[in-house]
Each structure stands twice: as structure tokens, then as C-alpha cells.
Design a protein that fits this description.
By secondary structure, the protein is an alpha+beta fold. Helix content is 45%, strand content 25%. The protein is built from seven helices and six strands; from the N terminus they run ααββββαβααβαα. Strand 3 and strand 4 form a beta hairpin. Helix 1 packs across helix 4 and helix 1 crosses helix 7. The protein is globular. The C terminus is likely disordered.
Length: 170
């Protein structure tokens, strides 16, 4: 039997993975020349934990979930092009900040952003989303994705609607 917290986490990941799949699909659809301007690693932290990575090159786009425990790091690239990244390279990205953009937020803010109850600009201006690295590149990427129709997800299940609703603060 799953606890409520586990169910919330699983549903949040399901929603985040749907959004991640949408972003990867639209990046793949860009031409190589346009995609080249976004070359680099985009690292996403949720609740202070490295959660997923998007790697963009002119030729490919790959995305995977991150697992970090006991000083070991692993990424499972499950969207876009297959990619292998050794642990040393991944630890370098995490520890040395060698990524092009690092985006950090908490689960509640992510829920609200994906559900459309919070605008990204407001979240950024209020410090609910922190962006480190190449901010102009990230803003151009967001503009391109919005122009292609990437936006808040519509909940398709009642449980998803509940999870997309803002959570009370503890």
C-alpha cells in the first residue's frame, strides 16, 4: 500500500514526465540550426534534489531522470535520443555547475506551473523558481517552446487535477 506522500510523488513525476516529453518532442522538431543555439545541458532540481537533465546538441536531444545517493550519480536517458553519460561526467555537472542552465524549484511550485495556476514569470520574480547560468538562452528556449504550444498541462485524470492544485504550506 502506498502512502499519500508516495502517491503524490508518483503523480507529480507522471505529470513532470509528460511535460518533459512535450519539451523534448518540440526540441527534436526544431531544425539543427535553430536547436544549435540551445546547445548544452539543462539541469532541473525539484525540492533541492537534482531530478532530471536535458541535453541538447544540434543533432540530438536527450533527457533523463537523475538518481543521486551515497555520492554516486546515475542518469537514465529515457526520452529523445539514447545517450550514455559516465558517472564522473554527471558528478562534474552536479558538483562543478558545468551545465548551461540550472533550474530549481519545489514540488508545489512545479505543480502550480504545470497546472497553469502560476505564471512562470511571476514564479521567477518571486524567487519560487531560480535559474542559474545562461538566463538569456533559457528565456529564448522558453519563448520558442511557448511559440510551439508548450504550456500548462491539462489534467486528464481526477487525481491529476487534485495534484495540480496548490498544496497548503506546512
Amino acid at each position: 500500500m502506498h502512502t499519500s506522500a508516495e502517491q503524490d510523488s508518483n503523480m507529480l513525476w507522471k505529470i513532470a514526465d509528460q511535460f518533459r516529453a512535450w519539451v523534448v518532442r518540440d526540441l527534436v522538431a526544431l531544425g539543427e540550426e535553430e536547436r544549435a543555439q540551445f546547445r548544452g545541458d539543462f539541469l532541473f532540481y525539484i525540492d533541492s534534489q537534482p531530478s532530471f537533465l536535458v541535453v541538447v546538441t544540434p543533432q540530438t536531444v536527450s533527457s533523463g531522470r537523475l538518481t543521486v545517493s551515497g555520492g554516486h550519480a546515475e542518469v537514465t536517458f529515457d526520452l529523445g535520443s539514447p545517450l550514455r553519460m559516465d558517472e564522473a561526467t554527471l558528478l562534474g555537472l552536479l558538483n562543478e555547475g558545468a551545465v548551461r542552465v540550472k533550474v530549481s524549484t519545489d514540488a508545489n511550485t512545479l505543480r502550480r506551473l504545470l497546472g497553469g495556476t502560476l505564471k512562470a514569470k511571476i514564479a521567477y520574480l518571486n524567487g519560487l523558481v531560480k535559474i542559474a547560468g545562461d538566463l538569456p538562452c533559457f528565456m529564448r528556449l522558453v519563448a520558442v517552446l511557448k511559440g510551439r504550444g508548450v504550456g500548462p498541462l491539462q489534467a486528464t485524470e481526477p487525481a491529476a487535477s487534485t495534484l495540480l492544485a496548490p498544496r497548503p504550506s506546512h
